[in-house]
Design a protein that fits this description.
The chain has two domains: 316 residues, 3-Layer(aba) Sandwich (Aminopeptidase); 136 residues, Aminopeptidase i, Domain 2 (Roll), CATH 2.30.250.10. The chain contains 13 helices and 22 strands. Helix 4 packs across helix 9. A hairpin with a 3-residue loop joins strand 2 and strand 3. The mean pLDDT is 95. It is globular and about 80 Å long. The longest helix has 20 residues. The protein is an alpha/beta fold. Helices cover 30% and strands 24% of the residues.
């Protein structure tokens, strides 16, 4: 038996994370995931996620770093600060005992998700039916958005400068919206097309009304009826759509999946599951030797662009302000020195092996549901195009840390090499000199309106981030 045990140790084997929990761990997992589901249902957009995060931080005594910088307020070890970028991204930090020059332990994630955005002038009428025109955001499979209940969320700035928030379709008493699909009886031509061509983006129009306004002299009477409702309920006109950010998302709640309730189905696990885990982890880790930082970015699904995406200089700006308020000297060189001494876990989901579509996965190098948090040494497409590729030293540092803490992990790629690929914010952090490793939750149905994650992988992700925040 001893020889067999020694022999077995030569292999890398994935563990079933459920078998490691015990009764206490099972209870902790269920409580954490119930809280996650509740937060997820309240955070269908990046603005809502940010608003709920700021509300939580304010209750916990965090202060605005921007306000501190503008007033010259010094920051000391143990101080808890945050900075909001463009109302759609946020950086959270707890100052550690060591000098920031020795580096920061960072977890970077993103809080935007694939969805449908309303066009600037979206409302139109066709054959006495009112529709809203959309422009899809991120890597969606368009057919998945047909014939499912949809909700409308967003922010509108009215002519007088006041802000109106809209959320329609989440309450049981609310109406929902839909993009009707073509019936199979008349789909012969559509069935003959390639999947990517059968559902053009311009056909993703949301049905919103059918009752006409009672005035035969007015054209587009159904459209007018909808505008009348919007004006009565929210005080807006059609022109106000131009000054808005309105998103269409699935009107579906996060729910347990399976007889054993081991999985969670929800819209926007990508990447709010890693974002929530990172948020909870920095709060539970508290002050440590090193300064910790949680970066919840926007626009990852469309390339991390804009002033709220990870390609902006928001992370550098935040760190420069932090340096200025904690150290006697700060300069461009010192800022770069901090970045080159820092390490980031890039929190993003990975594609879990799906037996129904196993031809696109390489089983030996895939991540699986229930096998713990997933590590991706590198991302990118085909020949590692657009990749961030972690060093052997960083892989050792993180995997050894997880082993020491009893956190179940696995390693894998996003499918077979020539099938496609994907990226995260990791390469943008790496460009700053930060050492980066991708680590997050495996998903089934990634980018679909209802993705699937394992509860045990979620708790392992949270524990991995917490352990990293506490590490030196």
């Amino acid at each position: 038996m001893a020889e067999k045990s020694k022999y077995e140790e030569l292999f890398y084997k994935r563990k079933n994370a459920w078998k490691t929990l015990g009764d206490k761990g099972m209870e902790e997992t269920n409580v954490f995931c119930e809280e996650y589901k509740e937060f997820l249902d309240l955070s269908k957009t990046e603005r809502e996620f940010l608003d709920n995060t700021v509300e939580l931080l304010d209750k916990l005594g965090f202060i605005s770093l921007k306000n501190a910088f503008e007033t010259g307020q010094k920051i000391h070890p143990g101080d808890k600060v945050y900075y909001v970028g463009g109302k759609k991204s946020i950086i959270i930090s707890i100052v550690g005992k060591e000098s920031i020059h020795k580096g920061i332990n960072m977890v970077g994630t993103h809080i935007d998700s694939p969805r449908l955005d309303l066009k600037p002038i979206p409302l139109y009428e066709e054959m006495e039916l009112a529709y809203l025109k959309t422009h899809y955001y991120g890597g969606v499979r368009k057919y998945q958005w047909l014939s499912i209940p949809l909700a409308i969320h967003g922010t509108i700035i009215k002519k007088d400068g006041s802000e109106v928030k809209i959320s329609i379709g989440e309450s049981d008493s609310d109406p929902v919206f839909i993009i009707p699909d073509l019936l199979p009886h008349l789909a012969k031509e559509q069935n003959g097309k390639k999947l990517g061509e059968a559902f053009p983006g311009e056909s993703l129009n949301i049905l919103t009304g059918s009752i006409p306004f009672e005035d035969e002299d007015i054209k587009q009477t159904v459209k007018l009826k909808v505008l009348q409702y919007l004006n009565r309920e929210y005080g807006i006109t059609e022109k106000d759509f131009i000054n808005s950010e309105i998103q269409v998302v699935p009107a579906l709640k996060a729910r347990d999946i399976g007889f054993d309730r081991s999985l969670i189905g929800s819209y926007a696990h990508d990447d709010r599951v890693c974002s929530y885990a990172a948020l909870r982890a920095i709060l539970s880790a508290g002050m440590g030797e090193k300064t910790t930082l949680c970066y919840l970015a926007d626009k990852e699904e469309i390339g991390s662009v804009g002033n709220t995406g990870a390609q902006s200089d928001m992370l550098e700006y935040f760190t420069a302000m932090l340096l200025d308020l904690t150290e006697e000297k700060s300069s461009d060189v010192q800022l770069k020195h901090v970045m080159y001494n820092s390490t980031m876990l890039s929190g993003d989901v990975n594609a879990a092996y799906d037996p129904a579509f196993k031809n696109v996965y390489e089983k030996n190098n895939s991540v699986f549901l229930g096998k713990g948090v997933g590590i991706a040494k590198y991302t990118g497409a085909r020949g590692k195009g657009g990749a961030s590729d972690a060093s052997a030293e960083l892989m050792y540092k993180i995997t050894n840390l997880l082993d020491e803490k009893g956190i179940v992990w696995q390693v894998g790629e996003l499918g077979k090499i020539d099938e496609g690929g994907g990226g995260t914010i990791a390469k943008f952090a790496a460009k700053l000199g930060i050492e980066v490793l991708d680590i997050g939750v495996p998903l089934l149905g990634m980018h679909s309106p209802y993705e699937v994650a394992s509860k045990v992988d979620i708790i392992m992700c949270y524990k991995a981030y917490e352990a990293f925040f506490k590490s030196v």
